[in-house]
């Protein structure tokens, strides 16, 4: 009808309200985070609550407990009533995403939700493509369906896995992409759909191209956390040996707490742009192993080579690290080294935690946790 055609651009059909101007709308500080139960989601929630935001998160229904990283924030609820709320949802469910956005009316959306394990993506390629690739499209379209494309600022969790096979180092915003896994390829779609919606609909949408970032809250099957846990357990005699895949892969490892601050900074600029966050240093997996055991006073000597290589505890001669080819990937990303110059210059962002401090913090946290478990059992 003509009445329908007369609907002004600022009228949101779904919310059935006349929206205030984007400037007015953004005076509220309301964040919606997909992937809130993950490593980055928990640090970002803490960061935004401290900045005075109301924080909403999308949580998947699970038969087991999946909010352990957010537990301490629930405990804080009495001090900050109505500031933190979780909504059941999934990046594979468009209707649900529209409903959550309409309900929350966020000013900023951080899309951190993903099947984020590179090795697992080879086994669950279609699912990873659906959630990590199309899931990003669903979220962007949900924003448009709600009529909020000029009001909401959108952060996409892009990744150094986009670079994949080495084209140049260090890798920056202008380095071309060559993903090496179904995960990387799915994230490539997400990267470009974010750029496309920015250009097509004038959305404030940014890609943060983040290099690896870790913490004591890192998922236990990622290599750093697997090593820090094993080092703690082996030092206490609770585990004999750590089995790893490619010891020579090199990564640019930072601390997750530093990186979530960069995500927020990307959404506070005049105009949306894409940024690399990295430390500008690269270290092999092997060095992470040596440093992690080093924190506990255990020195490693390597012997043998290739898949026969072993790490020996110099003090007692025991084999404490072995290669298990089951952890090799069908295609590997051998070297990542990021150039964070643009973020440093335009966002004033810089990583604070260096490599040695990161390893130390992770190992000490796992040692503490392992010791309390032993005490609980006694
Ligand atoms: P995690 O694996 O720790 O967290 C992933 C989050 O996504 C979890 O909350 C998970 O929920 C959620 N999730 C998984 N599948 C779905 C789905 N179908 N619908 C909705 N939510 C889903 O990842 P990180 O915190 O380490 O990383 C955050 C984001 O940043 C990810 O997108 C990752 O790919 C990306 N990234 C990470 C880097 C890193 O080094 N950490 C570097 C660059 C990018 P549940 O808890 O229920 O499993
Ligand atoms: P990555 O992280 O693939 O870089 O993706 P991961 O810690 O899984 O692997 C890093 C490197 O270590 C090698 N490796 C092993 N990896 C695992 N998981 N387990 C092992 O036993 C093992 N042995 C050696 C791997 O081959 C690889 O080279 C992470 C994820 O957080 C992504 O979501 C994110 O986008 C990128 O970082 C940047």
TrEMBL record:
<comment type="similarity">
    <text>Belongs to the NAD(P)-dependent epimerase/dehydratase family. GDP-mannose 4,6-dehydratase subfamily.</text>
</comment>
<dbReference type="InterPro" id="IPR016040">
    <property type="entry name" value="NAD(P)-bd_dom"/>
</dbReference>
<dbReference type="InterPro" id="IPR036291">
    <property type="entry name" value="NAD(P)-bd_dom_sf"/>
</dbReference>
<feature type="domain" description="NAD(P)-binding">
    <location>
        <begin position="32"/>
        <end position="362"/>
    </location>
</feature>
<keyword id="KW-0456">Lyase</keyword>
<dbReference type="GO" id="GO:0008446">
    <property type="term" value="F:GDP-mannose 4,6-dehydratase activity"/>
</dbReference>
<dbReference type="InterPro" id="IPR006368">
    <property type="entry name" value="GDP_Man_deHydtase"/>
</dbReference>
<dbReference type="Pfam" id="PF16363">
    <property type="entry name" value="GDP_Man_Dehyd"/>
</dbReference>
<protein>
    <recommendedName>
        <fullName>GDP-mannose 4,6-dehydratase</fullName>
        <ecNumber>4.2.1.47</ecNumber>
    </recommendedName>
</protein>
<dbReference type="GO" id="GO:0042351">
    <property type="term" value="P:'de novo' GDP-L-fucose biosynthetic process"/>
</dbReference>
């Amino acid at each position: 009808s003509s009445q329908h055609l007369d609907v002004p651009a600022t009228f949101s059909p779904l919310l059935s309200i006349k929206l205030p101007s984007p400037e007015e709308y953004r005076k509220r500080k309301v964040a919606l985070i997909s992937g809130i139960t993950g490593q980055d989601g928990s640090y970002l929630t803490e960061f935004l609550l401290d900045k005075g935001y109301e924080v909403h998160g999308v949580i998947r229904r699970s038969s087991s407990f999946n909010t352990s990283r957010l537990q301490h924030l629930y405990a804080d609820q009495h001090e900050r009533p109505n500031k933190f709320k979780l909504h059941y949802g999934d990046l594979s469910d468009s209707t649900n995403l529209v409903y959550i956005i309409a309900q929350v009316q966020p000013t900023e959306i951080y899309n951190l939700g993903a099947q984020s394990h590179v090795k697992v993506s080879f086994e669950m390629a279609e699912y990873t493509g659906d959630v990590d690739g199309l899931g990003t499209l669903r979220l962007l379209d949900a924003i448009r369906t709600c009529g909020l494309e000029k009001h909401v600022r959108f952060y996409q969790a892009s990744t150094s896995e986009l670079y994949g096979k080495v084209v140049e180092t260090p890798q920056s915003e202008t380095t071309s992409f060559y993903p090496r896994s179904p995960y990387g390829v799915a994230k490539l779609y997400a990267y470009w759909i974010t750029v496309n919606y920015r250009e097509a609909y004038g959305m404030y949408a940014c890609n943060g191209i983040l290099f690896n970032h870790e913490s004591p809250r890192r998922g236990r099957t990622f290599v750093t956390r697997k090593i820090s846990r094993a080092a703690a357990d082996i030092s206490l005699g609770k585990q004999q040996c750590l089995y790893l895949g490619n010891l020579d892969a090199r990564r640019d490892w930072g601390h997750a707490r530093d990186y979530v601050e960069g995500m927020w900074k990307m959404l506070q600029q005049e105009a949306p742009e894409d940024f690399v966050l990295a430390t500008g240093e690269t270290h092999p997996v092997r060095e992470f192993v040596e440093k992690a055991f080093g924190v506990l006073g255990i020195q490693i000597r390597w012997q043998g080579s290739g898949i026969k290589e072993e790490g020996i505890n110099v003090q007692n001669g025991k084999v404490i690290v072995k290669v298990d080819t089951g952890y090799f990937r069908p295609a590997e990303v051998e070297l990542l080294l990021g150039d964070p110059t643009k973020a440093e210059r335009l966002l004033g962002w810089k990583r604070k935690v260096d490599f040695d401090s990161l390893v130390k913090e992770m190992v000490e946290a796992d040692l503490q946790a392992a010791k309390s478990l032993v005490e609980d059992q006694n």
